[in-house]
């Protein structure tokens, strides 16, 4: 007879093997579909490949949630805490869902308070998983309007302790009061029967709640049918030993930068390099979002990718130039096309600076520094 401890180990090994064996072929299907979409296909063929890819994505989401739920229920997940960049982590999760939000015509926003430290100690992977479930759930059940993630930090009574309060608010279908107590139950869905509008196993919020408990917190919800829902969690994290919390100990912000790039990796790299140089950075993935950010907030410099979906960099710059506060604000073109003719075109379109991809870190920081000083001198 196998002992309980041996069964637990075997179950953990089985879940790990299943995870690998299932994800490997699915990753291959998704990867090959992406490569196929880059070839010359008819519109009908593109439709077929796109539909196949969407099915594979949905299958991967269902499998991941099921496996994650099983591991959490079996206590096979432990926290792996280390120092991580807070803003970059949150922004990376939000950008991951921008394509789905765009497909549904939703506005996906994030509002990160200046109180958030540059880095904290915690399990970044589990925090990302928690936020993925919350944002994914919000996008799934919202047909019109917006989804917004907000985060704020405050010091706790413990030495080096920081409580990061995160809210994910949507304007979706909402949840009836009598159902609020049961939405975190496993395999629980708001709709049942053959006429369901939303697919899935009903595990997303159950996994999110278990992840919140694992992170020493609790997931709370407030909602109104037809008006939307707000999910909130307070994550107890820690400052690194050589850091301190509070305005008196924060580096002076040298300027505010708006990074406009549809490539999430570029957003992450630019954001990290500039924040490390004491700049306050906001990243957006398309021209529409850039115009929205510029109309609501003031930036010293804008880094503008030129090739983007929906609205290219030239069109976006033209719209931003139409805003009263941005008549003279430096806009730096960021592009892989570095020919002289293209540089001249950028100047003709009202862009003062030019950065060629791949951008070297030192060149990025020095260029931004020069134009921030110019912007602040003009203002």
Describe this structure in words.
Helix 3 (86-96) packs parallel to helix 5 (124-140). The protein is globular. 30% of the residues are buried. The strands form 3 sheets. The chain has a 5-stranded mixed sheet. The protein has a 5-stranded parallel sheet with strand order 9-8-10-11-12, with helices on both faces. The protein contains 11 helices and 12 strands. The chain folds into 3 domains: 4-73, Helix Hairpins (Orthogonal Bundle); 82-238, Histidine kinase-like ATPase, C-terminal domain (Heat Shock Protein 90, 2-Layer Sandwich); 251-378, Rossmann fold, CATH 3.40.50. The termini are far apart. The chain is 45% helix and 20% strand. It is an alpha/beta fold and 379 residues long.
Walk me through the topology:
Blueprint (H helix, E strand, L loop, with lengths): L3 H34 L5 H31 L8 E4 H11 L1 H6 L3 E6 L6 E4 L1 H17 L5 E10 L5 E10 L33 H11 L5 E5 L3 E11 L17 E5 L3 H13 L3 E5 L2 H10 L4 E5 L7 H9 L9 E5 L4 H9 L4 E4 L4 H18 L1
Parallel strand pairs: 2-4, 8-9, 8-10, 10-11, 11-12
Antiparallel strand pairs: 1-3, 4-5, 5-7, 6-7
């Amino acid at each position: 007879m196998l002992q309980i401890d041996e069964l637990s180990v075997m179950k953990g090994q089985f879940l790990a093997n299943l995870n690998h064996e299932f994800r490997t072929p699915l990753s291959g299907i998704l990867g090959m579909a992406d490569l196929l979409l880059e070839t010359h296909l008819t519109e009908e063929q593109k439709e077929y490949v796109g539909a196949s890819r969407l099915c594979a994505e949905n299958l991967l989401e269902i499998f991941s949630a099921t496996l994650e739920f099983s591991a959490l229920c079996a206590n096979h997940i432990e926290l792996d805490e280390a120092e991580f960049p807070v803003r970059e982590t949150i922004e990376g999760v939000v950008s991951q869902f921008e394509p789905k939000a765009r497909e549904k015509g939703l506005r996906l926003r994030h509002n990160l308070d200046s109180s958030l430290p540059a880095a904290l100690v915690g399990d970044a992977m589990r925090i990302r998983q928690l936020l993925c479930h919350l944002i994914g759930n919000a996008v799934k059940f919202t047909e019109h309007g917006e989804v917004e993630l907000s985060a704020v930090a405050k010091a706790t009574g413990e030495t080096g302790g920081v409580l990061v309060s995160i809210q994910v608010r949507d304007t979706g279908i909402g949840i009836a009061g009598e159902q609020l107590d049961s939405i975190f139950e496993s395999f629980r869905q708001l709709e049942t029967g053959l006429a369901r509008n939303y697919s899935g196993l009903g595990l997303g919020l159950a996994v999110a709640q278990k992840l919140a408990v694992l992170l020493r917190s609790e997931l709370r919800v407030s909602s109104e049918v037809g008006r939307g829902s707000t999910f909130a969690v307070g994550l107890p994290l820690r400052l690194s030993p050589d850091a301190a919390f509070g305005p008196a100990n924060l580096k002076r912000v040298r300027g505010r930068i708006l990074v406009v790039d549809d490539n999430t990796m570029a957003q992450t790299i630019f954001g990290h390099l500039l924040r490390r140089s004491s700049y306050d950075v906001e990243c957006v993935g398309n021209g529409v979002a850039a115009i929205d950010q510029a109309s609501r907030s003031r930036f010293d410099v804008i880094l503008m990718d030129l090739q983007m979906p929906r609205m290219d960099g030239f069109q976006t710059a033209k719209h931003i130039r139409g805003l009263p506060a941005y008549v003279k604000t430096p806009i730096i073109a960021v592009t892989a096309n570095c020919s002289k003719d293209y540089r001249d075109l950028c100047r003709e379109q009202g862009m003062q600076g030019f950065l060629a991809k791949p951008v070297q870190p030192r060149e990025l920081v020095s260029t931004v520094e020069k134009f921030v000083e110019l912007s602040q001198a003009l203002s």
